[in-house]
Amino acid sequence: MPTARYANAPQLSMNTTDEIRLQVKQYVDRLSPERLRVAADFLAYLAESESNEATQELLEIPGFVEAFERGKQDVAAGRVTDWRKVRDDV
User: Fold this and answer.
1) CA distance linking residue 73 with residue 49, whole number of Å
2) How many angstroms separate the CA atoms of 38 and 89, rounded?
3) DSSP one-letter string for 15-78
4) I need a labelling partner for 8 at 20 to 30 A (CA). Which of 45, 63, 64, 75 fits?
5) 57 neighbors 51 (Cβ within 8 angstroms)
6) How many Å is the maximal CA-CA distance in the chain?
7) pLDDT > 70: what percent of the chain?
8) CA-to-CA distance for 28 and 20, rounded, in angstroms?
9) What would the pLDDT profile of 21-53 be if each residue is shown by its tens digit?
């Protein structure tokens, strides 16, 4: 995983998401309200981009849209099975 690239940023080896989240929180806590808005907008953009990529990946699976629509119709019609009846070991 790359480390921070800015001169004032500590050069840490962040190996876990918890460590990364802690470092991000420390940066966020030092931001002015204006910069905090910019950071929030950028994070929203990143989250949306990741979501869009995942959606696109699903849409590229042959037959996915049709199967998903059939599944929604099955749920609406009550044609469902309780997961406990399928998997009793979880």
Assistant:
1) 29
2) 47
3) -SHHHHHHHHHHHHHT--HHHHHHHHHHHHHHHHHHHHHHHHHHHTSTTHHHHHHHHHHHHHTT
4) 45
5) no
6) 59
7) 81
8) 12
9) 999 999 999 999 999 999 999 999 999 999 999
